[in-house]
Amino acid sequence: MSGDLRKCPFIKLEAHQNRVITCEWCNKKGLLATSANDGTVRVWSVTKNHYTLQQTCIFNKSEVSAEDLGSLGSPCDPNLSLVCWSISGKYIAAALEKVVNIWQITGGKGLLDVQPHWVSALAWPEEGPVASWAGDTLEVLLVGRMDGSLGLIEVVDSCTMHRVELEHCYRKDVAVMAIAWYSEDKPFAVGYADGKLLIGTKEPLEKGTVVMIDAHKESIACIKWDPLGQLLMSCAKETTVKLWSFAGDSWNCLYKLCHPALVNNVTWCSHLGKGSKLRLMLASGCQNGLVCVWTVPQDVSKISLSASSSSEEWWEPGPKSQIKSGYKKAEEATCVYQLKGHLTPVRSVCFNSDGLVLVSGGLGGLMNIWSLRDGSVLQSVVTGSGAIQNIACIPDVGVVACSSRSKDVLVVNCTNEWIAGNHVLATCRTSLKKQGVIGLNMAPCMRTFLERLPIMLQEQYAYEKPHVICGDQLIHSPYMQCLASLAVGLQLDQLLCNPPVPPHHAGCLPDSSTWNSAEWSWLECFSTTVKAAEALAKGVALPECFAVPDLEPVPEDELAHVMDNSKWFTGMDEQIMSWATSRPEDWHLGGKCDVYLWGAGRHGQLAEAGRNVMIPTGAPSFSQAQQVICGQNCTFVIQANGTVMACGEGSYGRLGQGNSDDLHVLTVISALQGFVVTQLVTSCGSDGHSMALTESGEVFSWGDGDYGKLGHGNSDRQRRPRQIEALQGEEVVQMSCGFKHSAVVTADGKLFTFGNGDYGRLGLGNTSNKKLPERVAALEGYQVGQVACGLNHTLAVSADGMMVWAFGDGDYGKLGLGNSTAKSSPQKVDCLCGIAIKKAACGTQFSVALTKDGHVYTFGQDRLIGLPEGRARNHNRPQLVPALNGVFIEDIVVGAEHTLGLSSSGDVYGWGSNSEGQLGLGHTNHVREPTLITALQGKGIRQISAGRCHSVAWTAPPVPPRAPGVSVPLQLGLPDSIPPQFSSLKEVSIETIRARLRLLYHFSDLMYSSWRLLNLSPNNQNSTSHYNAGTWGIVQGQLRPLLAPRVYTLPMVRSIGKTMVQGKNYGPQITVKRISTRGRKCKPIFVQIARQVVKLNASDLRLPSRAWKVKLVGEGADDAGGVFDDTITEICQELEMGIVDLLIPTPNVTAEVGYNRDRFLLNPSTCSEEYLLQFKFLGILMGVAIRTKKPLDLHLAPMVWKQLCCIPLSLEDLEEVDLLYVQTLNSILHIEDSGITEENFHEMIPLDSFVGQSADGKMVPIIPGGNSIPLTFSNRKEYVDRAVEYRLHEIDRQVAAVREGMSWIIPVPLLSLLTAKQLEQMVCGLPEISVEVLKKVVRYREVDEQHQLAQWFWKTLEEFSNEERVLFMRFVSGRSRLPANTADISQRFQIMKVDRPYDSLPTSQTCFFQLRLPPYSSQSVMAERLRYAINNCRSIDMDNYMLSRNVDNTEGSDTDY
Question: Which of 348, 442, 1314, 1408 is spaced 20 to 30 A from 436 at the CA atom?
């Protein structure tokens, strides 16, 4: 221990001539009293830097004859151990044998009073009013004696006192051991040698004031009132501490605090509770050296007696004892810390004034100073020889201790400043000690490093954060990752991330003036992530800091189930996440949404609702909509999960699909996949452009780029959403697209505009165009809350709705300023100021404003503003729309020339231009005043939108506006039933599954926030050390299926978008020769392209579609995309047909057994430079497939995908591709089972050295020099281990080359978050299994097509999802795809009926592509059994029956499993 921690400065007070016995601190006066065997009490004035002796009080026993006193210095009597201060700090009392002395602090001779018997306890009241009597203050001292009598001494002044005997409190011949008196007006407590407690008052009031409690079996050691005087704590020489309180009309034991050993000393912390659940804190020191810290509820009155708890269990006994998990009731006593730091009994414990430090002293003079923030030892001090008699904490000075064999008093200056400076090292030392690492005193550099760790963390994080946030760096540096892991591994996170409050304040909000929680919030998030990951991976309890938000109320025992990881094995969590991902509609809250569209639809903007629709018509394909946005002949939908879809006119790329085609069905905008889009706006005129805002704060724009209105610094059109980089770092909350300009508003009230500047519509004081967002300087100093852009004018509204500004073109008075002049800087619209505007909207030549109390104001071109003829003259100032009088309007939307209003009752009103029927009234006449759209009445409309000449209304409730930066609260509905494919969830209630899904989503959110700090690199794989425990579960792959897709898609999409080559349709040109000339054969296309591509610059290949342009030598085709796709298809064929040597079929193909018989492995024997470059090109191809979302038709074995994702392989993975080899190795391992011994080993085993079969069938040494190492009976286990090890790593070099190629195009570190299946789907897409194709190649045996069984089977197969059909294919044929061409299916698919018990499991023979069905009672049973078989019987393959025939099996091969 010595030398590990920095020494705390201390000072010795040379106090007495003889051994010091006790020290008492008086807070009122700032004085310390010490007493010793030399018969004196000394009073010291102690401050931060001064220690002065103020007075020496000599104990006066002159009025007693000498023989009564006995010998003065004999060690057997506790001389002057009874010393105590009065409340006011005016007097000190001390007692020795039968004499009591009372001294006044100001000096003078003490008062002396001889008692009738030996004194054994003294007590002044601790608190309370000092009674005033005869003008002077009277102080009272209780004296307890060995014969059980009590006396009361009233001190009047320095020379007068009276003694009163409290005869009503006498007990005969039982010694008084301790007295506790809270205040004069409250009862006092007396503890006796026989373990009884007496509660009494100083005046003998009416009967019953003296209460005897049979408290303990042993003699009372100490009793103390809590800081409020409500709870009395008693402790005797036994293991239980009891807390008593007066309730109703009796004293009851509220708590029994059980300890593992005898308790010697107990103390309260004077600091009261805080927060919603007030608690008090106390500490106890035990005979075995343990120190315990407890918290108990502070408000005694609220605790029902039934809830009084015994802590023998750490939870409540009685009727509620089913709750065994960590959910403690608020009413209980809780043990916060068990501190082990003494080898000898602990004699005294003491809290410091703020409750953050506990000091404990034991026999042998060892004093420990503990931090109560995390239970670490801040300092251990050896005070001297002998036991530490008692300790006092002095605010701002430190700790005073006196030990039984020393004449000096030790003052240790562990001030708050000292503790703050040394806490980090103390915490690290405690953590290291728990891990068995000791000896910091030998490592000064390590010690300094640990002390500086928080500063290094914070500096490094601050330095790296901007680079990571803007995407220049994908992840934090390994150095930063190490520092963060180290901090969590050393448990520094608890110290750094939590405010410095004592344990009983843990739940309450910290004081924001002194504590900045944001400073370390990133570390807290990282720490919670890592600990939760470890808990999920190991199936142990989640950390306390893991709090799931928005959890629906769940019954308590269910909640315990949800949080208990041991009840959820990985398969279950995996199925829950897979269900939520593959069938989001099951979890959609509020079910389907009804969407009605009307107006012009010739470009497909109304989807299936029709072409020209006069009356609102439903569109089922919109049923997942959360928001619908109408634009210029196009419609966008935002789904609840943030996915964006589009349909309608595609010119100028306005649908964001990468082309200019019209779409008549809703189609996902794939460039935004992975982002959660929360808001989308689009223009209703000019050539059409749009902007989208994501939950994570990015702003994307796409469509026509004239005048720079997309904000990218140029006028190029963007056919795919592209992030506006100029707005990075601004927190955008609202956006608007005008015809030729755009505007955004940020969370801190700034307004940015960009695009065409004519008429001053940008509000920048001039009319020039801006190609990048520019802040409207004129509105600095105001908080702008929203903006609306029209044809050529703009309105802005302040955040509180009390100010409205207008600028731009003024024709028709549409600025509302009373004239029609253009304004190039924002002008206040006086009529609209001060009336709380909720929303403003701009059309072509008019404007509309909606107030918070539901009124609509309009101004501008008279035919469009909804006013009757006579009123429309005054159209250049805002006016109320009379037709809407008495209707509360919730929302207004404006197309180009028509307006819709939604009332609070769900009615929709329309007015303005109606040439295309966009008002939904069944005609095309112009409508001057607001008219009710009767077709929508009673439909429950909650939201509306208007485009250039079409409109939409729908029933989904509007999303509440979110605080910036807060993720959208996850809305989860309850599915009706558990789909059959998720069989492991059958037994669980749907509510519980939903709560668990929330928990998994919360884990995903944490991962999403902190994955950049996790070291997921494959090189970190073997160290399962304590410091990367959490990341291990992700590196190994078992936690990856539990992550929500956004964890990896968002960073992937973001990084791909950030590195996309802009403004080009295709990359560099590549020449390919396919036609052989003069009889010379061409090289494979793969090789031709590979040689050229690997020499290019990686950054030139990162395009959204064609990474390179192919020029075919001697062929006429020009590559407009088709040739590129063509060559890629040919390349895949070359790879799989073996024209290029990179891939080999799995060994199972040649052996015709097991799985993955249509899959390929990387060829282990291709390791020349040339080949490795080709593998690198294969990686580039995969990267291009991911980036351009065009899948490759490659069928690699799962094992290869696993390695590409850096998931460590296991024996099962090898078995999946080479069943026979694994069986051979198994038989060598367990060869003794077949009766083979050491003698005949070599006759039976053809191998004689450490060589084994590689994946391509060659015999190779499995360790360096394996040819010359003999294989024997005794080293066969090592042989098998080495053979497996060799096979699992034989293609490592090839995999590394592929990953290097992928890293050219995509962010490879992200692959560490993907499962093998997810990576395969990103590269190769999903194989489609067509039931129709299977029907074409089927043969029936023992059953015909018309048979019920066959009918049921096809029906079941059609109900299966595609993924289940893939599993089914794998179950019956060992393949996961069908050849693209039916003619290529060599075997017919056989369906055979077998005689087995009803409703048993189906079996298959993959060799013969055969399914064997037993009879079934119904189609649903058949479906259930088939599902079970394909999900769980993967490795049970009838092909193995040849191998297991020699095992005695009477059932016949059909029931081999």
Answer: 348
